[in-house]
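Same chain as my last thread, 178 residues:
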Amino acid sequence: MSPSSETILRTATFNPKVRTYIFLVILFYLIVSFIGWILIPFWLLGLGQWFSGRFFQTLRCQLSDRNLRFAKGFIVHVEKTIPLENIQDVAFIGGPLLRAFGLTMIRVETAGGGGAKHTSNMMSMIGIEDAEAFRDGILRQRERWLQQRRQDDTGEAVFSAMHRELMAIRALLEQSRS
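reply #2:
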């Protein structure tokens, strides 16, 4: 899930209650949809437990020194890699059902887009254990990465200015020889 040039700082663990939460959420959608009534017996007789267990097994989240990676799903598999410098906000979401299960959803908002268009993308991660510490780790590492980038940019600017000055001195010396 990560390139060898990156250092993995933290790998999230997920609360097993996510399985039950997924089971109930999908059951709710089956109940409120007309076509879902056909699937409810299959869902209750084992398909739901199997599906929610498989979904839980696909959950992955890693924080590296440069990126946040997330993967989920086995029918529709989603993998996202978010560079830390693109993260705009990390928020907690907790509705009544999530709170009843002791779960938290972390929503990571990123900025993207090109030119005049400014788009926002979101990635949600449900059931990360010790979610507050994981969020704090993301924000701390983002700040470290941005500080390192600023220092690198400042160093490049200083080097570039010195290079221009040396090239000007070289040109003057070459003129004086002629």
